[in-house]
Amino acid sequence: MSTVDESRPVREEDAFDVAAVEQWLDRGRIAEVRQFPGGASNLTYLLRMAEGPELILRRPPAGTKARGAHDMGREFRIQSALEPVFPQVPTMVAHCTEDESPIGSELYVMERLVGLIPRRDFGFPVSAEQADRLCDAAVDTLVALHSIDVAAVPGLAALNKGEGYVARQVGGWIKRLENARTDDTGDWSDITAWLDQHQPADVGSSMIHNDYRLDNMVLDADDPTRIIGVLDWELATVGDPLMDLGCTLAYWVQADDDEFFRMTRRQPTAEPGMWTRQQVIDAYLERRGMSLTPEEWRFYEVFGLFRFAVIAQQIWYRYFHGQTTNEAYAAFGPAVAGFEARCRRILGG
User: Fold this and answer.
1) pLDDT for position 70
2) What is the pLDDT, as a whole number, of residue 6?
3) Which of 280, 304, 297 is nearest to 140 (CA)?
4) Which of 82, 111, 140 corresponds to the end of one domain?
5) Helices 128-146 and 241-249: crossing angle, nearest 10°?
6) Is residue 61 in a domain?
7) How far, in Å, CA of 330 to CA of 55, rounded?
8) What's this model's pTM, rounded to 2 decimal places?
9) In this structure, are 241 and 144 located in the same domain?
10) Contact in structure between 38 and 44 (CB atoms under 8 Å)
11) 315 occurs within a structural domain
């Protein structure tokens, strides 16, 4: 995935039978397996082959998971379908269902994209002018994804469930919150009621990523303003493009944000030259030929933050109940409370 090797030895609780995977994959000997620390949902491993290109293996975590989550086959099929029309998807290699899996869980393997992945800080030299151009490219890439003719691409049209995407998302994420409650979960009833009462009609039906962030991108090692790959298609579907934009900007932390929100930053959006959220919104709307008032945007902003909070709560649920011992997840519970307060501040003007 990255020319900067961020992989680490595999965590004991995340280990799998390498010999069994080697036999199933049938691409020669796996010389080494390492694990990427990034991501808090599906697990990602580096397979260093004795011969041939390096590969990436993706599998779900152990423990209870939300219904419909961690669908490796779906993620594999979406990227396979997108490859002819969206060059920033990795090349798929193989997929295996849970019933036939050599490790007891569904998995898929793809070729490793060699490049640079921005993290909380870039981790490689990027000037303010390059940061500006990267933001421009990120908006262009999102617009290109949303502009795909879904009906004309085999394998994508089936993702389209028709009108009512916004309503399905609002109802679905409210239900996910209820299903992932722990003893310390706050009272979100006023926020969920507002989302339910203020949801707009769908503005369109596009191919959307639903986790479109800089740390899910691979940049050209020789030109960090050029996006050569977009990763992590677990939540991708066909739906309202403004919902996708709202979810993207829930992760877009600015240098002038409050202390809590700055602490949630997972990508270098506060670095010199990076755009503000409003600049991203304005550029996207202009390139799509759309318009939106600040009051209309507020729904998408609050929904994006609410969904971010629910994802954090689902991860916290696993840690709270001892389904994972990864100490990186210990901060997710307090983070949910912080998102709750931020949503209320936005609703209060």
Assistant:
1) 62
2) 77
3) 280
4) 111
5) 150
6) yes
7) 30
8) 0.91
9) yes
10) yes
11) yes
pLDDT greater than 60 at residue 3 = no
Could you tell me which of 88, 92, 80 has the C-alpha nearest to residue 229?
88
Torsion angles phi and psi, residue 68, rounded to 5 = 90, -10
CB under 8 Å to 312, separation ≥6 — which residues? 332, 335, 336, 339
d(CA 119, CA 330): 20
Is a pLDDT exceeding 70 seen at residue 4?
no
Tokens standing for residue 99: 């019933």
Q: Burial level of 347, CB count in 10 A (0-12/13-18/19+)? A: middle
Q: Which amino acid is at 66?
A: A
Looking at residue 20, its amino acid is: A
167, 316 contact by CB (below 8 A): no
Alpha-helical (H) ranges within the chain are 18-25, 72-82, 128-146, 165-179, 189-198, 241-249, 259-263, 277-288, 294-320, 332-347
Quote the mean pLDDT of the chain. 93
**Counted domains in the chain:** 2
- Domain with 47, as residue range(s), is 12-111
pLDDT digits (tens, 9 = 90+) for 98-136: 899 999 999 999 999 999 999 999 999 999 999 999 999
Confidence tier at 306 by pLDDT (50, 70, 90): very high
* pLDDT more than 70, % of the chain: 95
Q: Could you tell me the two tokens for 78?
A: 């979406």
> Is residue 99 left, alpha or beta, with left meaning phi > 0 and alpha meaning psi from -120 to 50?
alpha
The rounded percent of the chain whose pLDDT value lies above 90 is 88
Please indicate, yes or no, if residue 117 is contained in any of the structural domains.
Answer: no
Q: Can you read off the two tokens belonging to residue 156?
A: 């994508």
* Helix, coil or strand: residue 244: helix
Q: Is the CB of residue 80 less than 8 Å from the CB of residue 71?
A: no
**3-state DSSP call for residue 30?**
strand
- Alpha carbons 70 and 43: distance in angstroms, whole number: 10
Q: CA–CA distance from 27 to each of 18, 19, 32, 59, 252 (Å)?
A: 13, 12, 14, 19, 40
Torsion sign, CA atoms 282, 284, 289, 291: negative
257 in helix, strand or coil?
coil
